[in-house]
Amino acid sequence: GQGTYTWADTSKYEGTWNNDIREGFGKFNYKDGSSYQGNWKDNQRNGEGTYIYKNGDSYFGVWLNGIKNGKGIYTIALNHSKLVGIWENNKFIKGEWKSNDGTIYSGLFNDNIPIENGTFKFKNGNQINGTINESNQFVYRSIVSSN
User: Which of 56, 57, 29, 101 is nearest to 73 (CA)?
Assistant: First the structure.
């Protein structure tokens, strides 16, 4: 059924319970100021939901057993850039890194860092194709102009 529980550390859950286990839809406010609203299974974030970190960053997407796993969008509050794509075991592995100036990097990621082949697309329509080398530097292969 529906219910609310507040822990001694001030953490609070409001939502669906099944035999004293968070199960179904609910909202959890953590003691550090972060919060999660979405689906739960076996007391863990599971399915679609939104986690807002205490620094203002947020993740909206799929969770599996309490970790980011599947399609999702992570927004960085400081500069409003976004990581949009596929997450695996809490790590961003494939998709787009969209900066607030309109620049988009598309490619693969390892531990949230761009790797291998990728493309920078700029607001003016130009793009640069290249590879991230062992020193984490982008080495361009081709430049495509919008003109």
Answer: 57
